[in-house]
């Protein structure tokens, strides 16, 4: 996150114009930057309070029938599924590719042969980008809309000259942190404009519309990005490139070092057809088996090293979601759920904490023999 000193000029500007929310000048400036980055008309994107609300409002703006079936990966953060449920639809949980950990068009095509689907919600898992040209072909061939949950993929996921819809997060844990915030980008006609209106309760603000300004045009929510969060995002953008480069270097070095101490027994997320991971924010490794994962967890706990099980349990194993979801066969996801572990990874990570992790990893893997 930007330091208070880096943030101060933006806050002073905000205070000088006395505009703190409701599509203020800093939000407009931020959206202009995004429009330039993605080579889009500003009307094809909008900021929102967070990516979860962005997903909900995009699903609402698609005007799908109530109870529509939305395909998404079983291996993802809960917000992907809860956004579907809160939008009034039913999640259909699919498997992911065993190497890229992504829900692919091939998996979606196979699911279409088994049941009716009304939309697909692939996830840029851990920030790994999708090939948007493949998903555009899927939309054209099936007529099923695709919305990419690109929450963790700012800087990595691009439209790549294709048509499509992307939803990014600017949460403090993401590569472009604003504390909280989201970005919706869509080449689908009027979709971003609908999301913008829905984010302001559904109130019409367009003088050219068929209803008066201030009239309720749709049943929306309060999901606007504030000027405070836009200020943080603008400050973060000033050093984004240098931070992304440092993250890439750290990520590559840690993978190499862990492979060396782990005798190449570890498996890493493979690059997908959408290109490389430009700004990694987490380090998630696949252990050879569940016993190895459990042993590494225990050893890290004893060494006071925090770990995370991303993303477990799988969505279909969460009691709150079980009665609300349909689940297809997910063998790859089941294996990943038993063997993935998130390890410490953060900007500015120095040699000492890196060595602590390496020492524990070497200790654990040296005690376990695996068939290579």
Helix content: 40-55%
Number of helices: 13
What is the CA-atom radius of gyration, in angstroms?
21 Å
The total of beta strands comes to 10
How big a fraction of the residues is strand?
A: 5-15%
Taken from the alpha-carbon principal axes, the silhouette is globular
* Unreliable stretches covering 5 or more consecutive residues: none
Strand order of the largest sheet: 1-7-6-5
| Major sheet size, sense and barrel closure | 4 strands, mixed
| CATH H-tier superfamily of the largest domain | Type I PLP-dependent aspartate aminotransferase-like (Major domain)
User: What class do helices, strands and sheet pairing give?
Assistant: alpha/beta
CATH topology name of the largest domain: Aspartate Aminotransferase, domain 2
Count of domain modules: 2
Looking at the overall shape, the CATH architecture of the largest domain is: 3-Layer(aba) Sandwich
Distance between the termini: 42 Å
């Amino acid at each position: 996150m930007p330091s208070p000193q880096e943030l101060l000029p933006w806050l002073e500007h905000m205070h000088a114009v006395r505009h703190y929310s409701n599509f203020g000048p800093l939000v407009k400036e931020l959206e202009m930057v995004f429009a330039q980055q993605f080579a889009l008309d500003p009307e094809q994107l909008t900021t929102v309070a967070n990516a979860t609300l962005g997903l909900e409002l995009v699903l609402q703006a698609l005007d799908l029938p109530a109870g529509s079936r939305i395909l998404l990966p079983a291996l993802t953060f809960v917000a992907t599924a809860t956004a579907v449920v809160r939008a009034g639809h039913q999640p259909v949980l699919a498997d992911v590719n065993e190497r890229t950990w992504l829900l692919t068009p091939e998996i979606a095509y196979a699911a279409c042969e088994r049941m009716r689907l009304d939309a697909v919600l692939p996830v840029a898992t851990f920030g790994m980008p999708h090939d948007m040209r493949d998903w555009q072909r899927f939309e054209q061939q099936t007529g099923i809309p695709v919305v990419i949950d690109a929450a963790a993929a700012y800087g990595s996921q691009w439209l790549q000259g294709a048509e499509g819809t992307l939803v990014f997060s600017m949460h403090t844990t993401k590569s472009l942190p604003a504390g909280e915030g989201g970005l919706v980008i869509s080449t689908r006609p009027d979709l971003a404009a609908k999301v913008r209106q829905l984010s302001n309760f559904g109130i019409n603000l367009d003088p050219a519309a068929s209803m008066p300004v201030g009239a309720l045009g749709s049943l929306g929510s309060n999901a606007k990005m504030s000027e405070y969060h836009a200020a943080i995002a603008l400050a973060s953008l000033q050093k984004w490139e240098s931070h992304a480069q440092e993250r890439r270097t750290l990520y590559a070095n840690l993978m190499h070092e862990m492979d060396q101490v782990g005798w190449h027994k570890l498996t890493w997320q493979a690059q997908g057809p959408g290109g490389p991971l430009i700004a990694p924010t987490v380090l998630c490794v696949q252990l050879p088996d569940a016993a190895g994962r459990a042993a590494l967890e225990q050893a890290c706990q004893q060494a006071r090293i925090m770990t995370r099980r991303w993303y477990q349990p799988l969505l279909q194993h969460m009691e709150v979601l079980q009665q609300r979801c349909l689940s297809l066969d997910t063998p790859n996801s089941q294996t990943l759920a038993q063997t993935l572990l998130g390890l410490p990874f953060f900007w500015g990570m120095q040699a000492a904490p890196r060595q602590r992790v390496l020492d524990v990893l070497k200790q654990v893997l040296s005690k376990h023999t695996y068939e290579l």
